[in-house]
Amino acid sequence: MAFELPKLPYAFDALEPHIDAKTMEIHHDKHHAAYVTNANAALEKHPEFGKKTVEELLWGINDVPEDIRTVIRNNAGGHANHSIFWTIMGPGGGGNPSGRIADALKNTFGGYDQFKEQLQKAAVGQFGSGWAWLVADRQGKLAIKGYPNQDSPYMDELTPLLGVDVWEHAYYLKYQNRRADYVTAWFNTLNWDAINSRFGSVWA
To answer: Which residue range is the domain that position 58 belongs to?
Structure first.
């Protein structure tokens, strides 16, 4: 089964003023689309691996044939990361979390403000291109982890709950080199219902 570019669940301008429409259009229609195209092309060389989900490929990245492993790591990783990224944001987002994720953030970090500070530090401090993720292990224990490039928490058998993309293509048109300003604004897009749903799947 070939990977497909998921439809953006809202209009390109839905996250303004925090993320501009042109950035969303290029990010989704060009960058994410390229990851899908490149991953599918690599999997044509080993069709037995094309039957796996993107999560299964990344969980078993060391089992992927060496001649396509780096391509899959970069591009299936990019596909997985962005497929989550679009869904954990939404119009009218932001504010304080509620439900199970709010309790877990309080228990792990001391509260939402403390979590926000630590995630912002991880995102701004990520050298070069990459991501900062809130992840959960199989017992539901939370942690903040930074990943370079398009590496995925799935490669560490962790479930990514929410993540901020700090590749320059995610913010440069509006924020130029002001990564910290972008990350601060990005918190205003968070879709806590979707994040709670992702967290609930860890416990399923």
So the answer is: 21-87
